[in-house]
Amino acid sequence: MEWRVRTDKKRRRRSLVAISAVLGGVLVLSACGGGDDDGKAKGGDTSSSKSQSDVDAAAAKDASKAKITITPKDGATNVGLNDAANVAVTDGTLTTVELKTSEGAAVAGKIAADGKSWKPDAALKRSTKYALSATAKDEAGKEAHENASFTTVSPENSFVGSFIPDDGQTVGVGMPVSITFNKAIKDQKAVQAAITVTSSSGQEVVGHWFSAQRLDFRPEQYWQAGSTVTLKLALDGVQGAPGVKGVQNRTATFKIGRSQVSTVDAKTKKMTVTRDGAVLKTIPISAGSPENPTYNGQMVISEKFKETRMDGSTVGFKNSEGKGEYDIKDVPHAMRLSQSGTFIHGNYWGSDSIFGSVNTSHGCVGLNDAQGANDPNQPAAWFYDNSLIGDVVTVVNSPDKTIKPDNGLNGWNMSWADWKAGAAS
């Protein structure tokens, strides 16, 4: 019996040794990641944690002095498309920067000549996830690395503004800068503050909101002939409405040509073309009939068509069958004066005798012309060839009302005080 007791004791000691070995293994495995509040590893022996700490400290001491900053921050969403992604470094120079889409498509970019910054060559794409990695070296040649990923703004969370006139275009003195946004703008003050329009003439230029999606700019008087107008859009990242940001950074310039303003007298049925203050030509016209008079007011030529179709049904002139009262498929030398359908155009179907004597149109201003728009000696052809988009055509002495300022590019029919009152504040 005594022998059995000893044997049991030996077995117990062997079990305890085995358990201690297992527990010891656990302690060794957990020593790298855990410890008591005093920082010592559980189990009493701290030699391994001390050696790891020494290694970490040595690595940090030997690290590159270069500090890389990536914008936007890692994990950012709704990132703008222009100038939002960039890399900068201090105490070093960039050696490589890579920007790729989640599909692996590389985005071209350039490191600045001084090696201190990088940016992509073009605007980023909407609703796209990007990964950016950068490497830099300090003066000792030691490398530093930084990585970030971000997602650009989606179409649902962004807005853009299309504008006229086009960049580089030469236009008449009446041409406003007209911007149409693809979404309603709630914070009009913030958006307008991010847009500047200036003239080389020094004229004061003010914006006016015609609606939540249209913003026009003009000076008090017509632009000065020969001046240059510059439009700057700095909308990238600007919040136009809750959760909706702009994505544009763009500069455009256009030239103001000679000053041409033509006055249509609906009563005398003549148009006087004045250029740079001198009468250039007087042309017989046929304006709107008494039943369909032409609008009064200052109207800006917004489009030019050598030939176009005019269907009365598209502007409310329908017969009893619901068809247009007129449908002419080859109207020559047509120039738009309003969004509602007012044109100044050639007329080949009317008798020569009506021009200068009878108002016969549905509201347009007609000039004598030939079918096919190929006779340069016709009055309509001459006026078309001598007109620019942005030239002003002013109608007077018509029995109709003055055209509304937002019907086309016709904000000149608003007083300067009223115009300025429509600016965001």
UniProtKB/TrEMBL annotation:
The keyword Transferase applies. Coiled coil: none annotated. Residues 38-64 are annotated as: Disordered. It holds the Pfam family Big_10. Residues 1-31 form the signal peptide. One of its GO terms (biological process) is cell wall organization. InterPro entries: Big_10, LD-transpeptidase, LD_TPept_cat_dom, Transpep_catalytic_dom. Residues 44-61 have a biased composition (Low complexity). GO terms for cellular component: extracellular region. The keyword Membrane applies. Keywords: Acyltransferase, Cell membrane, Cell shape, Cell wall biogenesis/degradation, Lipoprotein, Membrane, Palmitate, Peptidoglycan synthesis, Signal, Transferase. It comes from the Bacteria. Pathway: Glycan biosynthesis; Cell wall biogenesis; peptidoglycan biosynthesis. One of its GO terms (molecular function) is acyltransferase activity. Residues 260-396 form the L,D-TPase catalytic domain. The active site is at 345 (proton donor/acceptor), 364 (nucleophile). CDD domains: LDT_IgD_like_2, YkuD_like. This is L,D-TPase catalytic domain-containing protein. The lineage of its organism: Bacteria, Bacillati, Actinomycetota, Actinomycetes, Kitasatosporales.
